[in-house]
Structures are given as structure tokens and as C-alpha cells.
């Protein structure tokens, strides 16, 4: 990463008269067909009144601009990215090549089924692969992201209860350790959130759960392993209790990675789940998107999945084919299309590249890496929950807090050393949460170097605390003023120019 | 007369009216306030229900009304400069309400009780 | 070990030793035995890159080859600059996460700020987010935003001329979120303003009104007086627009809308069979705090350098939980980058030229079909930019089939023996002539 700030905006590179494009000649010109009828005239009042102002740049200016900009960014290909709960694993290059296959890139989403059998087969193949991995009956790949998958899954749960005429079920139980997206998705789906308490080790307190289970419960949302990276070993009991009360179990796939090769959510008793293809199945995060959040359901719930669905059919000639269907019992539609097809293609490429045996190793190696880092660092960092973790773990800041060095300070100091920071101040169970997820694609050498740096920072925190307290020192920018940004939001270049005047 | 709730709002009573804001303790916990989401004049507040929110850079807290009543005025100065809450939380009330039920005040804490509540909390 | 895993047997042994367990399964002693998988997944074996390529090639071979696309319906076959494709492949952009650490994410933050600026200029709005998945969900979010802003009013009026696919998504979100949606009827292919007026008078709880431009038939609607009518009822006017068309058409800002939303695929994003695309959501400044999703703001650092951060985060799901305006976490980073690069290369002249070429080619297609006879505009006299709904006397299914055989997708099949036909800068006179010849041959059948 370039540690000098590039910082220019494209608007500042614009010069009147420059252009960065040429359109193809369509050979139409002003010709009109003989005897033809001209289209209706567009009245001036329907046309744009103010001139459009956009940059005027030649191609090289644009290319250098964005290239230079990219050098101030840190990605997985730049260095170790132990961002807890985000599963920042390596994104294999072959996936990019497959997603940009010419035969897929130019396909219009409204093309008739018989023209896009290949695309539909790809969708169906991934759908079946995820069903096998999740232990579910069927998946929809339509949801565009993890949060979108959660919303879709919760709608499945509501549609299920509604179809049975059980309309009083509006409560969804969510552990207090859950990510904020869970309650937010529930609220969008029209469900009322009820929090269940965690035990000191972060697992669901079954005794606190029991009294919450009544005839108004629609279901329960969980990650497993949970936010602290601890496996919820009471899951069979929890699922039994929720099912007995008439609710459904929802598996938030945010933490699926360590379970690959070990156990399947369907077998744990979950009825509905989503998978973040951009976490577990290695599609690139793209600076925050696009992602993909397929939703799977157990047998009996398939009909509630959103429209359109891709179904396998037998053609008149006996061959197999695929067709889009709009089901009458479906929860509705949550997308105009079949979702982020190019992201789905990447995930399928990854599953094929790993193969069955490779997939079996993902979970154990991710868990090994996490436990190794945890064991090597727990002398200097406070480990609130002892024992074996899964793909990630949480420290409650430094052990030695005498110099009041915070988790934020440690995180910023890591940036100086060429690492992305772990997830900080989440989960909310501890004051100084520092959440580390190394993923299975990092080598022992990378982990050892990181461990050494974390030890150095702990030493600095004791010996030269100001170095840590005032970090970062060595990044393209240092200590941006968040408060000013939030007090007086300046969100466009035009607003920025006004404030600079 | 001034009374406090466990969710750290205060109500300063002047005649039939109450001025509701957040306590000095609460503003310190929250840090630099960047936005106060206020109700509109004419809205009815219910004791124990949220009537808005107060935001710092990376946190947000619901405003829970300590009393019931109709909003007769909002502190417009906070729209321009929300940091007034940090400068003097007690002087910079958020809404003025016409108190609906004076007996609701009995459930709230006085200054001394509130201070010890914060110390023990 | 697989090529993606760096662990040697020695590494694994020494790491397990440090963890105090004897084998990898020992790390899962807390998982009940009956849940443990006993056999590998029933999936194919590991493949080399060549085998993956072959397998994908086999999928591709099952698609029919379509070189010319007259289908639109909100998604269009536009010119995709090579520089845009190349630049978004840079791994610093591609493999980064949401820019939580601004010190090492100025690249992402900066291009989002550029994108926000360009979208505001295009729509005539003050603010833009960078977070919507596609145009349909962006419209649903706009609806929820209007309801959040209106506090207790929970009714949304939707023009019957909003596209079907978008409407289905809006209806689904509304049903689960407890919002009532009513349809404003159409007359001659455009929203009836009189019907809107009647509904605004009939209902006291309208939070917002959603209209479409160009609409589901490609028609450019006239919204004169609509914004005032909606604002008189303290409701918000939401305009769903095809992004690229706003280079030529009166903008939502100029119509007096409060929220502009829709799909930005038309700004140079490849068709990719439906995604990833990008939803845009822009609004007037007064709605800033109700805006869902990520927003980037400018600030300065401790050495006075201009820089960018995620701002207004306190609105968002990770802080507000069930009180958040939306559950959106994404910021559609890479797609906003695509659009920012596209608009930087094309500039205002390029976008206007594209709108002009689309209109020119659509006009030529329309004239040619009219000259051939046996067809007509479904809604005659209504102006269109680059897309129109044509009603045919011939067998439209046969026209579809024959055209696809020739590598041409002639449009989108619609009810009533109609085709929704669109043109862009990508189709030529020869393409149109070819389609018209096929049409003539179908007529002779």
C-alpha cells in the first residue's frame, strides 16, 4: 500500500474539451424510412433543464486517477486482513475469470428461458451444492447480500406461519450478542425482537430462553458458532424447545466457515438459513459489495421461497432443462432478477476448485488458525472466554490496562505495521472487544509475523504508550475528524466547494 | 423542581410545563453529540416511550420520555448546534411539554437519588 | 493440501501442539457427536483451473448465442469501456471490505464520494447513498424512508405505470413491513394525475407517492403539478428513473421530487443476467437522517489533509439495531466504482450522446416497423426516448423465436401480443434492418 495520500478528486482533473470515449457508428444518421411514421415528439418541458456537469477527461487521466486512488486501499491481496466476522479469505483468480465469461456477461435477464439454459443450469447447480453443504432441501440464490438473505429468510418464516393461519406469531428471539443486522432485518420484516441473554461464555442461556417461548414466537435467529466463536453445544436442545413452541429456527450464515467439513445447519435443527457467498465461498468483498446471500430451507418450506424460482424440468424430448416459475405460495419477490449472477458464478467456481475434499478442510484449518493465534497471544491480551474457539475469538483488550491503551489504539497501531485491523468494539458483551478471524488461507508464517507484531504493540503499550496512543503514524491519512464529518455532513464535491469558499 | 429517570433523562418542572433533556452524566457517556432527532410540536409523548434519539459519532441513544404530555416547543437551537448538549446538558433542554399527569413525577428520582444511582450504576 | 491452503503437515502438528489438542477433530470436541459429518459432501472432486473452465464452457454452450439485444425493461445493453472493466479488477478495490478503517481505505471512500457527487448532479438531488442492491430494492427502501419520515402515516400510492418486477418487490416489502400500497390508475399508458388527486383527497395517511420515468412502457410522463399536489398533503414524491436517461430528461430535482431512485445498470454496468447491478437512492438534504445505508462525507485529518470517512453511521443497523431505518449493510462499493469510472470517461457529452443515439436507433426501428405495417404503438402519441411498446398482428412468439435463431433478442414479450422494444448506442442500422426483415417474413407466414 502506498503510504502517501493521493487524494485528488476526478472533478479537479477535468478540463473542458477532453473526452474519454468514442461511441460506435450505428450508420443511421438522419435517415428515415420511406412512408415511415416519425415517433411522437418529446416536448421541451420533458427534457433536462439544467446542464449536466460531469468530468471531462481523456482515458489515461481517468486510468491513472483510479490506479493511484487504489494504492491508498488495503485489500486481502495487499496483506493480512484478520477482520473478525467478515471471513476475509483469499479470493481465487479463476473465479474472476469465470464470472466474466463472455457467454454470461452479455445475457439480458429477460431473455426467454430457452435461450439461457446454461445460466439456469449454473444457478441450479450452485443451488444444489449449497443445499448439500447446508443440509437443506432447496436454496434461492436471489438475495443480493447477507442482510437481504436474513430479510428473505424471516419472510419465509412469516409466510409459513401465515399459511397455517397462525398470524399471532410476531416475535423473533435474538441473542443479545447478535450483530445489529439481525434485529434490523427483523424490524424490516415486521417482527418484534425479543432478546435472549447470553451466559458468561457468550452461549445462549437456555434457562432464559424457556419462558420466552409461547404461542407468539415466530422463531429464533442464531449464528453457530456464535459471535464469540464458541460453538452453541446446546443447539439440539434449543432447536427442540423452539420447535415445540411452534417456532422455526433461523441460521445466520455469517459464521458458517468453521463448520465446513464438520456439521451442517440442517442437521443441527435449523429450518431456514442464509449463506454469505462473499464470506464462506470466497467471492470478493468489493469494498463492501456486491455480495450474495442465498437462502436455504428444509423440506416442506420450499414453496415459500421468493419468486422467481429456477426449477428442473423434463423437456418433451426427454432431456432435462430448466424453467423460471412464479409460485403462488411464495413469500413474494425480493429482487427483480435472479440475484447477483456474476457473484454466484464465482462461488460455484470456488466450490468446483475446492471439490468435496477441499471443502472438508476449510472449517478445520480456519479453526486451527484461530486457535493458534489465540493461544499465542493470550499472555498479552485478555481472553474473557477460555477454551477452544472456532473460526474466530474475542479479546477484551490488553491484559495490562495500566496505561489505558484501548482496543482502538491497538487497532490503529496495527495499521502502521501493514495489517488491517481486527473487528473492534463488537460484540458488545465486553468493553474492549477485539475480534480476530484469520481464515484458513493464511500460512503459519503470516500468523507468526502478526503474533510478533501484536506482542510488540503490547510491549509498546507498557514502555512507550504514547506511540500506541497516537497511532497510526504511518498511513496515508491520520486521525480524520469524524465528529466534524457527522456534525456538518459534506457528501458531494459541490457541497465541499461551497464550504471551502 | 427537577426529576430524573433511570434512562438518564431529566424533566425540569415549571408550573404546568416540563422541560425534558438528557442528564450531564448521559452526555458524558455519549460523547460528542452530532444530532438530536426531535419530535414535532403537537406530538403526544407517553411516559416510558421513546420520542426521538440523540446521536454521537458512533453511538445513538433513544430518548425515553420521563413523563406524558403534549410537545409545545422544541429546542430549535439544537438543530443548528447539537453540541450545546455537551456544553450544558441541563440548560439545553430538548422539548417542552404540557404535563398531562403531575403524579407521574413521583416515580422519578430527585437530584441526590439520581447522583447516587449514577455512582452505583 | 489443496492449492489454496498453505499448511504443511509440520505446520499443522506444531500448531495443534500449541493448542493442546492432538488432531484437527480435537478442535471440535464441543460439537455433539451425532451432528458430525461422517462422509465428505456429495459433490464433485477437486478440479484444476482447466477443468473449471471446461465446466463453465459447458454451461456457456447451452446458452443460445445472442449478439444483438433490443430488450430493455430497465436493463440495457450499453457500451462498457475497457478501462472501467480493467480498473475495477484492481485487487486493492476488489478484495477490500467496507471502509471501516479510513486510514487505509481512502481509495474506496474517495470513489464513493465521487459517485455520490455524480449521482446528485445526474438526478438533481442533494445527497446520495452508495448502498442499494438494485433498482427494485432501492425503490422499496425509498418507500420505507417515506414512511419513516412521515412517522404515523403508512400508505404509499404507486403509479400503475411502474414496472412489474419493481412493483412486486415494493409490494413484498410493504406487506411484511406493514405498509398499505394502493395503485394510481393509468390512462393512455401514463399515470392519471386526476386519479392521484382523488386518492390524495380520499386518504389522510399517505406518506409517499411513487411514479416512474420513463415508465414501464418506455413512455416519458409529464408530472407537471404533481409535486405540489403531493407536498400539499405532506407526502413525499418518489421518482423511479432509469439512471442514464436523466442525462436527457427533466430530472427528479427539476420535477420537485423528494427522492430519486432506480437502477444504475444503464450507466455502463454489464447485463450479467441480472446482477450485480446497482440501485441508486438520492434525496433532498432534509431527508439525510432518514437515508438508509452507507454515506461518505468529507473531513480533514490532524495534519489538515482533506480526506473521507463513512459518516452518519449512528443511523445504521449496526448501531440502531431494530430502530434503524433499514437493515442494509452493503455498500455496493465496486458497482459505485464502475459507475464513477464510466461517468468520468463518458462525461456529460457522452451520456447525452448515448441518450441521443438510443433515441435515434429506437426511432429508426419504430419507423421501419411502421413502414412494414401490421403493428402499432400500444399507446399512440405518447413520447418515448429509447424504448416503446409495440402491438403486433403477427404471432409474436414466432417473431421472438425466429429473431433469437438469428442472434437477435427483439424485445421483451408482453401481454396482448406486444413487445417492449429498446435500442441503445450498441445496435446499428444493419441490426434493425435484419430484425425488420425477420418481422416481414413472420408476417408472411
Structure described in brief:
The complex is a heterotrimer of chains A (501), B (121) and C (445). By secondary structure, chain B is an alpha+beta fold.
Give structural notes.
The complex is a heterotrimer of chains A (501), B (121) and C (445). Helices cover 34% and strands 10% of the residues of chain A. Chain A is built from 15 helices and twelve strands. Chain A has helices at 59-70, 93-99, 102-105, 117-134, 146-163, 181-188, 206-209, 235-244, 265-268, 341-377, 407-416, 444-463, 465-469, 482-487, 493-500; strands spanning 138-140, 171-175, 192-196, 217-222, 248-252, 272-274, 295-297, 309-314, 320-325, 393-396, 423-424, 433-436. Chain A is globular. By secondary structure, chain B is an alpha+beta fold. Chain B is built from four helices and nine strands. In chain B, the strands form two sheets. A six-stranded antiparallel sheet of chain B has the order 1-2-3-9-8-5. In chain B, strands 4-6-7 form a three-stranded antiparallel sheet. The mean pLDDT of chain B is 91. Chain C is α/β, with parallel strands linked by helices. Chain C has two domains: 68-78 and 347-444, Aspartate Aminotransferase, domain 1; 82-342, Type I PLP-dependent aspartate aminotransferase-like (Major domain) (Aspartate Aminotransferase, domain 2, 3-Layer(aba) Sandwich). Chain C has a seven-stranded mixed sheet with strand order 2-10-9-8-7-3-4, with helices on both faces. In chain C, strand 5 (186-187) and strand 6 (190-191) form a beta hairpin. Classes of the chains: A alpha/beta (501), B alpha+beta (121), C alpha/beta (445). Chains in contact: A-B, A-C, B-C.
Overall helicity of chain C: 25-40%
CATH architecture of chain B: Beta Barrel
- Multimerization state: heterotrimer
The level 1 CATH classification of the largest domain in chain C is Alpha Beta
The description of the largest β-sheet of chain B is: 6 strands, antiparallel
**Overall pLDDT of chain B, averaged?**
91
Shape of chain C: globular
**What is the C-level CATH assignment of chain B?**
Mainly Beta
Indicate the CATH topology of the largest domain in chain C: Aspartate Aminotransferase, domain 2
CATH homologous superfamily title of chain B: RNA polymerase II/Efflux pump adaptor protein, barrel-sandwich hybrid domain
Q: Helical content of chain B, roughly?
A: 10-25%
Class derived from helix and strand content of chain B: alpha+beta
CATH fold topology of chain B: OB fold (Dihydrolipoamide Acetyltransferase, E2P)
How would you sum up the major sheet of chain C? 7 strands, mixed
Approximately how much beta-strand content do the residues of chain B carry? 35-45%
Radius of gyration of chain B: 13 Å
What's the total helix number of chain C? 14
Amino acid at each position: 500500500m502506498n503510504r502517501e495520500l493521493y487524494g485528488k478528486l476526478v472533478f479537479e482533473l477535468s478540463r473542458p474539451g477532453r473526452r474519454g470515449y468514442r461511441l460506435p457508428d450505428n450508420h443511421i444518421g438522419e435517415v428515415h424510412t420511406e412512408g415511415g411514421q416519425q415517433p411522437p415528439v418529446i416536448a421541451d418541458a420533458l427534457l433536462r433543464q439544467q446542464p449536466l456537469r460531469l468530468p471531462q477527461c481523456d482515458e489515461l487521466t481517468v486510468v491513472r486517477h483510479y490506479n493511484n486512488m487504489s494504492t491508498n486501499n488495503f485489500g486481502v491481496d495487499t496483506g493480512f486482513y484478520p477482520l473478525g466476522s467478515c471471513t476475509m479469505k483469499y479470493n481465487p483468480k479463476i473465479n474472476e475469470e469465470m464470472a466474466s465469461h463472455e457467454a454470461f456477461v452479455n445475457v439480458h435477464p429477460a431473455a426467454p428461458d430457452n435461450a439461457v439454459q446454461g445460466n439456469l443450469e449454473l444457478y441450479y447447480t450452485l443451488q444444489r451444492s449449497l443445499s448439500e453443504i447446508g443440509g437443506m432441501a432447496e436454496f434461492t440464490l436471489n438475495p443480493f447480500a447477507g442482510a437481504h438473505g436474513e430479510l428473505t429468510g424471516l419472510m419465509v418464516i412469516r409466510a409459513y406461519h401465515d399459511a397455517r393461519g397462525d398470524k399471532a406469531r410476531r416475535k423473533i428471539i435474538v441473542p443479545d450478542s447478535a450483530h445489529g443486522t439481525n434485529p434490523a432485518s427483523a424490524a424490516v420484516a415486521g417482527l418484534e425482537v425479543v432478546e435472549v441473554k447470553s451466559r458468561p461464555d457468550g452461549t445462549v442461556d437456555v434457562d432464559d430462553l424457556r419462558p420466552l417461548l409461547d404461542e407468539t414466537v415466530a422463531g429464533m435467529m442464531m449464528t453457530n458458532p456464535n459471535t464469540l466463536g464458541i460453538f452453541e453445544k446446546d443447539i439440539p436442545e434449543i432447536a427442540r424447545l423452539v420447535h415445540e413452541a411452534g417456532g422455526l429456527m433461523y441460521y445466520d450464515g455469517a459464521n458458517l466457515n468453521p463448520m465446513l467439513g464438520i456439521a451442517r445447519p440442517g442437521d443441527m435443527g435449523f429450518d431456514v438459513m442464509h449463506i454469505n457467498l462473499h464470506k464462506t465461498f470466497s467471492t470478493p468483498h468489493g469494498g463492501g459489495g456486491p455480495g450474495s446471500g442465498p437462502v436455504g430451507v428444509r423440506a416442506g418450506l420450499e414453496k415459500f421461497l421468493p419468486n422467481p424460482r429456477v426449477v428442473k424440468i423434463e423437456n418433451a424430448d426427454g432431456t432435462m432443462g430448466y424453467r423460471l416459475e412464479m409460485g403462488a405460495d411464495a413469500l413474494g419477490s425480493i429482487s427483480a432478477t435472479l440475484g447477483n449472477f456474476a457473484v454466484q458464478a464465482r462461488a460455484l467456481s470456488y466450490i468446483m476448485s475446492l471439490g468435496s475434499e477441499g471443502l472438508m478442510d476449510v472449517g478445520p484449518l480456519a479453526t486451527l488458525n484461530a486457535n493458534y493465534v489465540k493461544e499465542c497471544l493470550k499472555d498479552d491480551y485478555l481472553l474473557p472466554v477460555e477454551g477452544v474457539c472456532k473460526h474466530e475469538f474475542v479479546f477484551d483488550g490488553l491484559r495490562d490496562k495500566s496505561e489505558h491503551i484501548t482496543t482502538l489504539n491497538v487497532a490503529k497501531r496495527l495499521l502502521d505495521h501493514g495489517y488491517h485491523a481486527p473487528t473492534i468494539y463488537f460484540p458488545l458483551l465486553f468493553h474492549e472487544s477485539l475480534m480476530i478471524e484469520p481464515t484458513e488461507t493464511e500460512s503459519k508464517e503470516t500468523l507468526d509475523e502478526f503474533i510478533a507484531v501484536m506482542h510488540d504493540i503490547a510491549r509498546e503499550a507498557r514502555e512507550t504508550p504514547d506511540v500506541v496512543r497516537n497511532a497510526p503514524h504511518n498511513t496515508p491519512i491520520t486521525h480524520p475528524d469524524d465528529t466534524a464529518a457527522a456534525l456538518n455532513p459534506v457528501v458531494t464535491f459541490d457541497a465541499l466547494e461551497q464550504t471551502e469558499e | 423542581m427537577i426529576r430524573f429517570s433511570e434512562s438518564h433523562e431529566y424533566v425540569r418542572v415549571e408550573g404546568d410545563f416540563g422541560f425534558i433533556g438528557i442528564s450531564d452524566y448521559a452526555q458524558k457517556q455519549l460523547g460528542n453529540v452530532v444530532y438530536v432527532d426531535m419530535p414535532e410540536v403537537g406530538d403526544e409523548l407517553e411516559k416510558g416511550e421513546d420520542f426521538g434519539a440523540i446521536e454521537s459519532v458512533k453511538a445513538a441513544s433513544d430518548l425515553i420520555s420521563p413523563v406524558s404530555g403534549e410537545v409545545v416547543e422544541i429546542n430549535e437551537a439544537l438543530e443548528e448546534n447539537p453540541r450545546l448538549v455537551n456544553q450544558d446538558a441541563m440548560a439545553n433542554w430538548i422539548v417542552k411539554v404540557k404535563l398531562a399527569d403531575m403524579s407521574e413525577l413521583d416515580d422519578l428520582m430527585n437530584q441526590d437519588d439520581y447522583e447516587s444511582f449514577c455512582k452505583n450504576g | 493440501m489443496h492449492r489454496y491452503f498453505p499448511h504443511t503437515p509440520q505446520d499443522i502438528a506444531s500448531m495443534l501442539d500449541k493448542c493442546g489438542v492432538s488432531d484437527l477433530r480435537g478442535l471440535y470436541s464441543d460439537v455433539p457427536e451425532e451432528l458430525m459429518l461422517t462422509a465428505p459432501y456429495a459433490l464433485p472432486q477437486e478440479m484444476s483451473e482447466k477443468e473449471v473452465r471446461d465446466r463453465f464452457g459447458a454451461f456457456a454452450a447451452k446458452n443460445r448465442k445472442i449478439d444483438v439485444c433490443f430488450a430493455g425493461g430497465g436493463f440495457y445493453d450499453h457500451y462498457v469501456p475497457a478501462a472501467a472493466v480493467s480498473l475495477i479488477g484492481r485487487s486493492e478495490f476488489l478484495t477490500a471490505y467496507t471502509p471501516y478503517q479510513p486510514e487505509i481505505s481512502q481509495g474506496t471512500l474517495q470513489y464513493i464520494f465521487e459517485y455520490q457527487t455524480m449521482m446528485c448532479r445526474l438526478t438533481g438531488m442533494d445527497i446520495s447513498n452508495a448502498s442499494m442492491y438494485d433498482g427494485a430494492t432501492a425503490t422499496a427502501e425509498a418507500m420505507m424512508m417515506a414512511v419513516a419520515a412521515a412517522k404515523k402515516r403508512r400508505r404509499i400510492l404507486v403509479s400503475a405505470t411502474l414496472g412489474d418486477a419493481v412493483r412486486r418487490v415494493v409490494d413484498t416489502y410493504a406487506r411484511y413491513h406493514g405498509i398499505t400500497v394502493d395503485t394510481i390508475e393509468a390512462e393512455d399508458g401514463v399515470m392519471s394525475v386526476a386519479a392521484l388527486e382523488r386518492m390524495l383527497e380520499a386518504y389522510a395517511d399517505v406518506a409517499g407517492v411513487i411514479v416512474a420515468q420513463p415508465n414501464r412502457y418506455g413512455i416519458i410522463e409529464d408530472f407537471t403539478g404533481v409535486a405540489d399536489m403531493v407536498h400539499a398533503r405532506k407526502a413525499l414524491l418518489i421518482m423511479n428513473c432509469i439512471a442514464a436517461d436523466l442525462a436527457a430528461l427533466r430530472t427528479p430535482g427539476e420535477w420537485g421530487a423528494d427522492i430519486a431512485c432506480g437502477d444504475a445498470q444503464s450507466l455502463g454496468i454489464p447485463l450479467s443476467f441480472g446482477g450485480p447491478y446497482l440501485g441508486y437512492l438520492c434525496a433532498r438534504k432534509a431527508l439525510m437522517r432518514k437515508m438508509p445505508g452507507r454515506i461518505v462525507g468529507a473531513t480533514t485529518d490532524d495534519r489538515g489533509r482533506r480526506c473521507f470517512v463513512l459518516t452518519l453511521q449512528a443511523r445504521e443497523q449496526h448501531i440502531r439495531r431494530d430502530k434503524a431505518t433499514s437493515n442494509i449493510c452493503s455498500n455496493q462499493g465496486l458497482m459505485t466504482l464502475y459507475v464513477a469510472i464510466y461517468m468520468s470517461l463518458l462525461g456529460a457529452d457522452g451520456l447525452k450522446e448515448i441518450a441521443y443515439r438510443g433515441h435515434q436507433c429506437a426511432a429508426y426501428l419504430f419507423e421501419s416497423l411502421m413502414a412494414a405495417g401490421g403493428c402499432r404503438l400500444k399507446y399512440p402519441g405518447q413520447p418515448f426516448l429509447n424504448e416503446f411498446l409495440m402491438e403486433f398482428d403477427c404471432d409474436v412468439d414466432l417473431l421472438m423465436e425466429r429473431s433469437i435463431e438469428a442472434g437477435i433478442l427483439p424485445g421483451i414479450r408482453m401481454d396482448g401480443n406486444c413487445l417492449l422494444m429498446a435500442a441503445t448506442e450498441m445496435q446499428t442500422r444493419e441490426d434493425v434492418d435484419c430484425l425488420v426483415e425477420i418481422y416481414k417474413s413472420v408476417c408472411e407466414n
